[in-house]
């Protein structure tokens, strides 16, 4: 825990805008305990799970937990939510459907306003809650992106960051917002990339191969339709999804670290889901992402030395990206 406290305090001091934790009880420590610790050891960054799910936690439990973090942090909490992956697979459960996710988010909106809402035919409430907490939906496919546009305060796109994919993903978010009569510009748009900076591209990729495999598994676990995977790579991508071991989800030296190399798709995944390479490589990539219309990125600090990742991005990469 001492190392975790040092990491969150460092991220806050270096100017990172968001500090998040994974909600996957079988492979990570309890997310809300970690966020409480982060709230008491940071001053400025927003804090939240990225992401929780509708299966492992009752909506009133989630609402109360995130409202507590909001209270502890002085109003800095956000709530990231998706359909679920390693947290539920390690319990032998199935991911939530889009209908499940919609109902859960709608219930959370009410609960976080202090309202009594109907949940499966029963009234539930978190009447002590003082203010709504922004809800972010993580999305990999067109339907979930549009759902985020309909319901969420923000979206965490996990679709990839080529210019074509960025434009298409944002268009789906805006389409959902338009269908709901919302201003598309009111929705905060972020994307998740797996980050690694090193003196060579090879060293940077080697440190996060498990994270790139995790991105592929998460993004493609429900199929490849509408997800821009080149035809000649589709069989390999589907095999990775089949072979991925959620028991060691994003453990840097776990079994998932070698799958993409064996299938010959590591470079493809690094280019699609990574901010990876030398400082110059990463600056060039960020400028291209910015020029494609995306300005907010969540870059997990993965690999054997997360502190070095935080420092190098903050000092050698981000300050060099204008605008």
Plain-language structure description:
Strand 1 (18-21), helix 2 and strand 2 (46-49) form a beta-alpha-beta unit. Strands 3-6-7-8-11 form a five-stranded parallel beta sheet, covered by helices on one side. The protein has a two-stranded parallel sheet with strand order 1-2. Strands 4-5 form a two-stranded antiparallel sheet. It has helices at residues 2-13, 31-39, 59-73, 86-89, 98-111, 142-151, 163-179, 201-207, 209-220, 234-243, 259-263, 266-273, 279-291, 306-317; strands at residues 18-21, 46-49, 79-81, 116-119, 122-125, 135-139, 154-157, 188-192, 194-197, 274-277, 297-298. It is built from 14 helices and eleven strands. The radius of gyration is 19 Å and the shape is globular. The chain has 323 residues and is α/β, with parallel strands linked by helices. It has one domain (2-198, 275-311): TIM Barrel (Alpha-Beta Barrel), CATH 3.20.20.30. The mean pLDDT is 95. It starts with a helix and ends in a 6-residue tail after the last helix.
Quick structural summary:
The chain is built from 14 helices and 11 strands. It has helices spanning 2-13, 31-39, 59-73, 86-89, 98-111, 142-151, 163-179, 201-207, 209-220, 234-243, 259-263, 266-273, 279-291, 306-317; strands at 18-21, 46-49, 79-81, 116-119, 122-125, 135-139, 154-157, 188-192, 194-197, 274-277, 297-298. The chain has a 5-stranded parallel sheet, covered by helices on one side.
């Amino acid at each position: 825990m001492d190392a975790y406290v040092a990491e969150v305090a460092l991220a806050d001091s270096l100017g990172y805008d968001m500090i998040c934790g994974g909600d996957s009880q079988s492979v990570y420590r309890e997310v809300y305990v970690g966020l409480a610790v982060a709230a008491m050891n940071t001053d400025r960054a927003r804090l939240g799970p990225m992401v929780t799910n509708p299966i492992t936690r009752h909506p009133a439990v989630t609402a109360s937990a995130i409202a507590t973090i909001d209270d502890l942090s002085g109003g800095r909490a956000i709530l990231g939510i998706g359909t679920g992956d390693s947290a539920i697979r390690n319990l032998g459960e199935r991911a939530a459907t889009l209908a499940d996710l919609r109902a859960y988010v709608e219930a959370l909106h009410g609960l976080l306003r202090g309202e009594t809402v109907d949940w499966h035919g029963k009234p539930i409430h978190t009447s002590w809650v003082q203010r709504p907490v922004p809800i972010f939906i993580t999305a990999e496919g067109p339907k979930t992106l549009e759902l985020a546009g309909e319901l969420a305060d923000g979206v965490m796109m996990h679709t990839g960051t080529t210019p074509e994919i960025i434009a298409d993903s944002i268009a789906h978010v805006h389409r959902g917002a338009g269908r709901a009569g919302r201003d598309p510009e009111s929705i905060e748009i972020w994307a998740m990339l797996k980050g690694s900076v090193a003196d060579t591209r090879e060293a940077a990729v080697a440190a996060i191969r498990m994270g790139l495999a995790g991105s592929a598994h998460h993004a493609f676990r429900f199929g490849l339709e509408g997800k821009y995977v080149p035809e000649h790579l589709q069989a390999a991508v589907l095999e990775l999804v089949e072979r991925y071991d959620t028991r060691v989800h994003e453990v840097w030296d776990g079994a998932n670290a070698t799958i993409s190399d064996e299938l010959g798709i590591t470079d493809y995944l690094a280019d699609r889901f990574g901010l990876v390479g030398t400082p110059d490589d990463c600056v060039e990539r960020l400028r291209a992402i910015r020029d494609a219309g995306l300005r907010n990125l969540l870059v997990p600090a993965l690999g054997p030395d997360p502190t070095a990742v935080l420092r190098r991005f903050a000092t050698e990469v981000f300050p060099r990206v204008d605008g």
